Each structure stands twice: as C-alpha cells, then as structure tokens.
Amino acid sequence: MFDELLQRNPADSPSRPFGLYAASLLRMLQGEFAAASDLIEEIRTIAIERGDASAQELANRGTGTLAFWTGDHRRAKAAFELSVPVLRQNGDVHGLATVLVRLGQSVAAEDERGASAIYQEVLAITEARGELQIRSHALWALGIVAWRDGDSPGALGLVTKALVLNRELGEVWGAARRLDTLAWVVESLNEHRRAATLLGAAQALADSVGVPSATPPFLDADRKACERQARSGLGEEAFELAFEDGLGMSLDDAVAYALKQSAETSPPAVAPADPGRRLPAEPTAVGSLSVLIVDRHRVVADGIQMLLEQHPDLQVVGIATSAGDAVALASDTRPDVIVADYQLPDMTGAELAARLRDEQATTHILLLSSVVSNVLLREAVRAGARGVLLKTQPAEQLVDAVRRVGAGEMLIPATRLADFITGSDKDAQLFDLLTGREREVLRQLAAGRDNRQIAARMGIGYVTVRSHLRNLSSKLDAHSRLEILARAAELGLIVR
C-alpha cells in the first residue's frame, strides 16, 4: 500500500519525503532493514537536491530509528541529536516529542539518568499537547529506568499508566510491550505466577498483531532473565499453566488483570479506558464520505488515511486496530464506509461485517485481503460486506472502491455471485461443511499455536481441540497439521 502511495507522489512532490519516511518505518517493522535504508537514502538525496532542511531532518530521524532497531545506539543518538534542534526551530512539537523519546532510549544504553531527564521533558510536552501515544512511550521508558534503579513499585505505577493509555488508543502492540515489562517488574517483587501470566498475555497480544515477540530486541536479555527466574520460582509445570492463563486473555482481560493486580502494590491514578480512538475532525462536509479504517497494523492504517485524505470527498473519522474497537468507534462516528482488513486480531473482517449488519444498517463495509478466493468472497457476501479488494491492487483502485461502496454498489463480480446462488462453487460448499469451531481452530492453527494454546485461546479442553483437528483432517483429506494448513490455504479457507 505504501509503495502505491509513493508512486502517486513523484520525486518533486512536497509530500514525497514524508511518504518515504513512513514507508521506511513499515519496512523496519517487517524486518526489511536494507529496504528501509534505501528509502532513507532517497530522502537524503531529495533533501540535498532541494536544500530542504525538513527533509534532511526526516533523513536523520530515519537513520537514527534504523540504527536503534539494529542495535547501534551511538549512531542512533548522533542522528537524533541532529534532528532535535531543527524540530525545535520549526515548532514541530509532535515530531520533537517523538524524537526525544527515541533519543532517550538511545542515551539509556549508557546513561539512564540522562535518559530520565529527556523523558521528563517529553512528559511536559505531551501533557500540554495531549499527545497520548508519545506520553505512553515516555512513561514506559521512565518505568524501565525506575525498575533498573531498584524502584519496582514506582516502575509498576509508571508502566501501568502507560498500559492504560495504550488501551485508550486501541494500540495492541504498545499494550503488549507494557505487559511484557510489567512481568519483569513483578518478577523482581518475587511474584512468579503473576509474572508468568503477564508474559503469556503479552505474547497473546503479540501473536494477534503478527509479531513473534512483545519484547524489542534491545530489551530481550531482560525478558529472558524474567522468564528464567519465573520458571525457577514456580517450576516448569506451574509456569506453563500460568503462562497459558495469560495466553487466553484478550486485550481487555489483560489490562483488567494488570490493573487489578497493580492496585495491590501501587494503585495508579488513571482514567477509565475508552474502547478506541476517534480522530479529531471537522463535521463531514455535504457530499463527502466518512470513512472508518480498521487494520491491526497501525502504520498500515496511517498509510491508508494519508491516501484517502488526499481526496476532499473522503474524510477519515477514526482508526481502529481491532474489531472490538471498530464496533465502538462505528457506534460513535456512524461512518458511511468501513475499510477493514480481513485478518483482525479478535475476529475476521467478515465476522465484523456480520456484527455490524443490524447495528449499522447505513454503513457499507469494504474488506481488504492479501488473497481472494470464492470461499472468502462467499463468507464476505453472507456477512453483508459490499466487496473485497486485494491489497496488491493500485492505490487509486482503493479510492475508487471506497467511493463505489459508499454509493451502495456491490463489488463482488457477478459471475461469482451466480456461483454462490446456484451452489456450484465446490470450495464454498466445503467451507459450509466446517463448523464454526472447526474454522476457529483452523485460524488458530494458522497463527502457529499448539493444541494447548488453542485450547486456552478458545476456552475449550485440550481433548476437544484434538477432536476438532481429527475432523479437519477427515474433511480436508489431510494427514498432518502441515497438510491441514496447506490444503486450507489452497482452498482459500485461511488467509496466510
């Protein structure tokens, strides 16, 4: 999606450097560091050619972020220190706060007290400006400093406050990191079972957004030490049981658990969490379409927002990173169109469409997917979605699809609709043979979870999971877990 966005902005476009920077962040999240480096160098080239100080600052910011992600903290510190005076001079408060947090993390590798002073400046900036996302990051970083200083109760309060802000913003990935750090803190208080449960909850949220671990690379040693100590304190079997308790928690469950447990040690003064984030916006203009974006990856959602808001007739009224948050935001904003990823952390896009069908009768839903099969289309149509668009399609097709769906058009090809009506689609008939529980086990299996993790996630017994897998093997004519996944992917029963 970002590649398409960049193609719409030629090298002489004023917005080109920011688009390149956003794309570089996405590459870093995907672990494609060489590709990120190429994008940052393109920003630097543009900055030199134009004599553009703002573009040069973005290049420095990108260089620092890449260096930090790859463990070169000194280089990261040097790059961020070049960005800070430019941002101060430009009055870019949001950018300044963002860079200061990253500078603090780079400094912390050698001077944690110096980092603490930087985080305090960030808190002062964000309190005045209401920048909750950056404030959460600064509170988390301060909590780590407090923990390393031996102030575990203080660290508990700071990280818990950061967690609540992540919940208010609907940031699952940020919440996963906070829960992970809370586990280290409570382990230092010799609360082994609580630490194991928090580690499991953090891993569950990381799984839901498609990342292998909730721990950033530069803190991996702390996480491993926490797990080692908790295992030693509890014993292997008790640790696994407590960890599985955490694996079965949703975002709401995990936050509630953390808040309840933290209150016993250091009650944080926090406000109740809102279910999602509504973007500040002017009232929708007459003749324009209001759009709610739902994607588990916030950086992708931001890219879609940037694309749509280039068009005056399309107004983004909110962003959600889960189906649960989308339901709450849809109730609040009443959008004309919802653009939703088919794979969401808590349910599929089709299940979201079915849930909203009666509650939001005037809202039309467009689903985005990396693959489109007859099975997926049939499920989408039955749920009430107006269409499914491949993520590989050009950006202008997404814009056109949003407008057409907003006008009430059905984007499902007529030939496929005919197959659904006549029942001649064999793959879709096979989908109908699978029970709801079997489809959910299939999705959990595709996420890489073992039988015990699936049982904990779904709230069913281990033996029941094995029974569902035997049924899947029989219906899909498969003889192993790998064959089940391969056959399901071939038929479009799962999106991989």
Report on the architecture of this protein.
The chain has helices spanning 2-7, 16-29, 33-50, 53-69, 73-90, 93-108, 112-129, 132-148, 152-169, 172-188, 192-208, 220-234, 236-247, 251-263, 298-308, 323-333, 349-359, 374-383, 395-406, 414-422, 426-433, 436-446, 451-458, 462-476, 481-490, and strands spanning 277-278, 289-294, 314-320, 337-341, 364-369, 387-390. It is of the alpha/beta class and 496 residues long. A six-stranded mixed sheet has the order 1-3-2-4-5-6, with helices on both faces. α15 links the parallel β2 and β3 (314-320). 47% of the residues are buried. The model is unreliable at 264-286 and 414-430 (pLDDT under 50).
Largest sheet, spatial ordering of strands: 1-3-2-4-5-6
Overall outline: globular
| Secondary structural class | alpha/beta
Q: What is the residue-mean pLDDT, rounded to a whole number? A: 80
Q: How large a portion of the residues is in β-strands, by DSSP E?
A: 5-15%
This entry's quaternary arrangement is single chain
Main sheet overview: 6 strands, mixed
* Gap between N and C termini: 17 Å
